[in-house]
Amino acid sequence: NLQTASTAARGTFASLRDEDLQKLRQILGAKNVLTPQEVETEELARYNRDWMGKWEGRSAAILKPASTEEVSLVLKYANDHNLAVVPQGGNTGLVGGSVPVHDELVLSLLRMNAVEDLDQRSGIVTVQAGCVLENLDQYLAQHDFMVPLDLGAKGTCTIGGNAATNAGGLRYLRYGSLRGNVLGVEAVLADGQVVNSLSALRKDNTGYGLPQLFIGSEGTLGVITKLTILCPPRPKAVNIAFFACADFDRVQRTFALARQKLGEVLSAVEFCDRSAIDFVLKREAGTGVRDPLEEKHPFYVLIETSGSDGDHDEQKLHNFLEAAMGEESTVLDGVVAADETQARAIWRLREGVSDAMTTAGYVYKYDVSLPLPRMYELVEETRARLKEAGVEDTAKAAGYGHLGDANLHLNVTSLSGRDDKVHGLLEPWVFEWVSQAHGSISAEHGIGQCKPNFLHLSKADSAIQLMRTLKSALDPKGILNPYKVLA
Ligand code: FAD
Ligand code: 2HG
Ligand code: ZN
């Protein structure tokens, strides 16, 4: 049932033996080591299979450490005995990076979920890697701070997984990358060495930026156990507006106008096409999530403002609306959320697309960044390609994503299930199209086991070679997340 899975043969790793199990149980406690022999199939599948059911391994054991020291002891043992390990957080990743390909041990960080410290003046939080993003955000809310990251999987994904994938999400436009906001990382290397690079300083140029090695490395260079993150104050006034546009040119002009008129209070600019919205409306039928506009339109733009002074922000939003609906006439219709319930329902229209397109059939997902003017061309050309092949009635393409970051999510749902013909039409064509347009084949989801064979389309050979050098320096036996990222 695969999109693009690793075809790599099993490496020359050892197979788990009874004496290994005994040792691992000594380190972690018997109940924190699950094996296929002792656990219900469904419980095991939570760790072996990704949430879309696209990738599934057969882990010899699931390991659940509770401390950095336990992670260190487990990795030292695994490295000494040549056992391969997959670090796992909430298992919400979209590129098959968090599940085993063969029988690798799964190292779940979910028990390491404590918020250890918050500096109330600077907003710098120290948190264990397995803390669920939403739980961290709720903790910070009690102290008037927020995580500088938000995404649809917030209720399940972990902050360690977010850092390991350098997740982008819905507020990247305002707060930027985790590469900027994560100040420090504590990580355990493949041989069990604990690297303490947990700086809580905004400025620290003492040598190499070691935390950056682990951010976005998808569990291939080390296991992140703890992070320090610079968190912004929680905004006091938040407004959400939802607009309809007639074409993608007007979508882009609406974004440009929003930047001009809303300036520093702009916190998100997202977009969906009609097809994406139709999937959500069908999926959410009966939940209270509905199209807030009377007529159907080809494109929608969601704009969020966040600031500290409600009147000031509303005045700015008013000026923007006047220009967008009047002199500039970039939007056809629009609505500003009147209360929090409506704001949540509007956000759901956008955040719900991924799930709606996944559950409607078999979904092929592409997460790309492109020069903004060419972003929607890819969706149009995909549709034309599906039509030409005569599969347009069963293979439905939609475009949506983080307009403010020129990050397109092209999803194609095959309503009749997985389809080799559709797959063959999409790959490698999509990746090559993106490469020729000077885009990135992975804007925010990473490479995982899905895209190692296409990495060269977005990275120079010399850069890939340096990645290999780093990998063999930090993990000479290659036990950490094998078959992922590098082919
Ligand atoms: P996992 O899925 O468990 O792991 C992801 C990768 O990180 C794997 O390679 C794993 O080995 C590694 N890893 C996990 N924890 C650690 C650790 N402690 N140390 C080292 N390596 C580790 N992504 C975006 O960028 N933007 C979005 O807007 C976005 N929206 C999403 C919406 C939905 C509905 C879903 C399901 C996913 C979305 N994602 C998005 C994907 C995103 O990458 C993940 O949700 C999240 O960042 C992964 O966190 P996780 O804890 O689930 O990690
Ligand atoms: C989003 O922005 C996520 O909704 C998921 O990054 C995108 O499922 C996808 O393709
Ligand atoms: Zn996204």
Automatic annotation (TrEMBL):
<keyword id="KW-0560">Oxidoreductase</keyword>
<dbReference type="InterPro" id="IPR036318">
    <property type="entry name" value="FAD-bd_PCMH-like_sf"/>
</dbReference>
<dbReference type="InterPro" id="IPR016164">
    <property type="entry name" value="FAD-linked_Oxase-like_C"/>
</dbReference>
<dbReference type="InterPro" id="IPR004113">
    <property type="entry name" value="FAD-bd_oxidored_4_C"/>
</dbReference>
<dbReference type="InterPro" id="IPR016166">
    <property type="entry name" value="FAD-bd_PCMH"/>
</dbReference>
<dbReference type="InterPro" id="IPR016171">
    <property type="entry name" value="Vanillyl_alc_oxidase_C-sub2"/>
</dbReference>
<comment type="similarity">
    <text>Belongs to the FAD-binding oxidoreductase/transferase type 4 family.</text>
</comment>
<dbReference type="GO" id="GO:0016491">
    <property type="term" value="F:oxidoreductase activity"/>
</dbReference>
<dbReference type="InterPro" id="IPR051264">
    <property type="entry name" value="FAD-oxidored/transferase_4"/>
</dbReference>
<dbReference type="GO" id="GO:0071949">
    <property type="term" value="F:FAD binding"/>
</dbReference>
<dbReference type="InterPro" id="IPR016167">
    <property type="entry name" value="FAD-bd_PCMH_sub1"/>
</dbReference>
<dbReference type="Pfam" id="PF01565">
    <property type="entry name" value="FAD_binding_4"/>
</dbReference>
<protein>
    <recommendedName>
        <fullName>FAD-binding PCMH-type domain-containing protein</fullName>
    </recommendedName>
</protein>
<dbReference type="InterPro" id="IPR006094">
    <property type="entry name" value="Oxid_FAD_bind_N"/>
</dbReference>
<keyword id="KW-0285">Flavoprotein</keyword>
<feature type="domain" description="FAD-binding PCMH-type">
    <location>
        <begin position="55"/>
        <end position="234"/>
    </location>
</feature>
<dbReference type="GO" id="GO:0005739">
    <property type="term" value="C:mitochondrion"/>
</dbReference>
<keyword id="KW-0274">FAD</keyword>
<dbReference type="Pfam" id="PF02913">
    <property type="entry name" value="FAD-oxidase_C"/>
</dbReference>
<dbReference type="InterPro" id="IPR016169">
    <property type="entry name" value="FAD-bd_PCMH_sub2"/>
</dbReference>
